[in-house]
């Protein structure tokens, strides 16, 4: 958030599984389309927040499996943990806030009296979250009885049942909605409060997000029955909440357009813009360059000298290209290597996505000249050498 000088233009707060990430889309095409959109138009002046029921352990596992961007803020464990940046620095103030009328030992003791509850894995048991599996047909009765038991023990808790199988016991002050409200107040106090906030979800534990004042909300088309029922009962007449007709990340992009929150056409949906550059935005330029590289390697565009000449015309004659290893070479030299690489990845599962694009501009009105392009490794993906200069 240090890159923001004032209010964020847009803050997207999105659940992950079956909202941002479509596990039924093996090529991750909708997610890759969203990634390109965010890095091209929003990263420099907006905030991306992932709000997930996943614990830090299985959240990090998902990041290894799917092409997820690095969020500015991560809300995990059904709103019981808030962290910041790539290094995931915890919000200690939020931890202290959740301690009120919470005693994890008592929760464990009382839930052990319900044979219907099956404990989730140890990674999902967190300081302010106790999690179980519970059959849908038994959920209503168990939730009512357990609530009474914990209340009698002097605790103020919240029980959330979602996805037709998962039951989480949290402090009353926790939950995705309460965590978001806490975060918004903190951002406003720092002068970074977003001009607009879009919350995105698909299941019961996302319902709280839509109740946060003044936010826009989108239920993706594949939202589960429990959230659709909540919407019908509580938000059908709310013009700021919509049920998308598109799945997952595509539904999020659809909502950006429906609410007129900013550009919602992904650069991945633009063809041949390397020859028809009309958008004077450095981040858009970088995204389009790497999309061109992906298409060039996959042999999806024409093997044309015009592309090479166009790149040479926008890359400064003395500009340099810095490899993640730290080695650098002249940009013009790197471009000269492209013709012999055409179609190397044709027919293969090869995609390119970039994360955390940042830029600095010099005085060059009405046109772009690339002077310095510095790549860095994604955490955990470090290469052994600089044999490959692009990817």
Automatic annotation (TrEMBL):
Q: Which GO terms describe its molecular function?
A: magnesium ion binding; sucrose-phosphate phosphatase activity
Catalytic activity, as annotated: sucrose 6(F)-phosphate + H2O = sucrose + phosphate
| UniProt keyword Hydrolase present | yes
Per UniProt, residues of the Sucrose-phosphatase C-terminal domain are 282-362
Protein transport as a keyword of this entry, yes or no, is no
Superkingdom in the source lineage: Eukaryota
Q: What is its EC number?
A: 3.1.3.24
Q: Which cofactor does it need?
A: Mg(2+)
Keyword entries, A-Z: Hydrolase, Magnesium
Which Pfam family is an annotated match for this chain, by its short name? S6PP
Q: Quick one: which pathway?
A: Glycan biosynthesis; sucrose biosynthesis; sucrose from D-fructose 6-phosphate and UDP-alpha-D-glucose: step 2/2
**Boundaries of every Sucrose phosphatase-like domain copy:** 9-259
Cited function: Catalyzes the final step of sucrose synthesis.
The family note in this entry says:
Belongs to the sucrose phosphatase family.
Q: Which NCBIfam families match?
A: HAD-SF-IIB, SPP-subfamily, SPP_plant-cyano
PANTHER family, from UniProt? SUCROSE-PHOSPHATASE 2-RELATED, SUCROSE-PHOSPHATASE 3A-RELATED
Name it.
Sucrose-phosphatase
Protein species of origin = Trifolium subterraneum (Subterranean clover)
Highest lineage ranks of the organism? Eukaryota, Viridiplantae, Streptophyta, Embryophyta, Tracheophyta
């Amino acid at each position: 958030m240090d890159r923001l000088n004032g209010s964020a233009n847009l803050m997207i707060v999105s659940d992950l599984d079956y909202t941002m990430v479509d596990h039924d889309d093996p090529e991750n095409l909708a997610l890759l389309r969203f990634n390109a959109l965010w890095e091209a138009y929003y990263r420099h002046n907006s905030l991306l927040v992932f709000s997930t029921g996943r614990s830090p352990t299985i959240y990090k596992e998902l990041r290894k499996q799917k092409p997820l961007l690095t969020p500015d803020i991560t809300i995990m464990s059904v709103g019981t943990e808030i962290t910041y940046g790539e290094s995931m620095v915890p919000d200690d103030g939020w931890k202290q806030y959740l301690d009120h009328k919470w005693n994890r030992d008592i929760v464990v003791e009382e839930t052990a009296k319900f044979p219907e509850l099956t404990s989730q894995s140890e990674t999902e048991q967190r300081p302010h979250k106790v999690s179980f599996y519970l059959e849908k047909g038994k959920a209503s009765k168990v939730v009512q009885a357990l609530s009474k038991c914990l209340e009698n023990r002097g605790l103020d808790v919240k029980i959330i049942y979602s996805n037709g199988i998962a039951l989480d016991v949290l402090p009353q002050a926790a939950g995705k909605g309460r965590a978001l409200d806490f975060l918004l107040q903190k951002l406003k106090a720092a002068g970074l409060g977003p001009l607009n906030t879009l919350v995105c979800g698909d299941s019961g534990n996302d319902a709280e997000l839509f109740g946060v004042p003044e936010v826009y909300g989108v239920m993706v088309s594949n939202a589960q029955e429990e959230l659709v029922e909540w919407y019908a009962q509580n938000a059908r007449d709310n013009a700021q909440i919509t049920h998308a007709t598109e799945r997952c990340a595509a539904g999020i992009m659809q909502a950006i357009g429906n609410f007129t929150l900013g550009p919602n056409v992904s650069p991945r949906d633009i063809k041949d813009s390397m020859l028809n550059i009309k958008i004077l935005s450095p981040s858009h330029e970088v995204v389009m360059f790497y999309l061109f590289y992906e298409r060039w390697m996959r042999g999806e565009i024409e093997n044309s000298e015009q592309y090479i000449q166009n790149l040479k015309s926008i890359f400064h004659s003395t500009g340099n290209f810095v490899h993640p290893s730290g080695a650098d070479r002249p940009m013009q030299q790197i471009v000269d290597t492209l013709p012999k690489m055409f179609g190397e990845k044709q027919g293969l599962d090869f995609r390119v996505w970039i994360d955390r694009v940042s830029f600095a501009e010099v005085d060059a009105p009405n046109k772009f000249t690339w002077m310095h392009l510095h790549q860095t490794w994604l955490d955990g993906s470090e290469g052994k050498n600089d044999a490959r200069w692009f990817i």
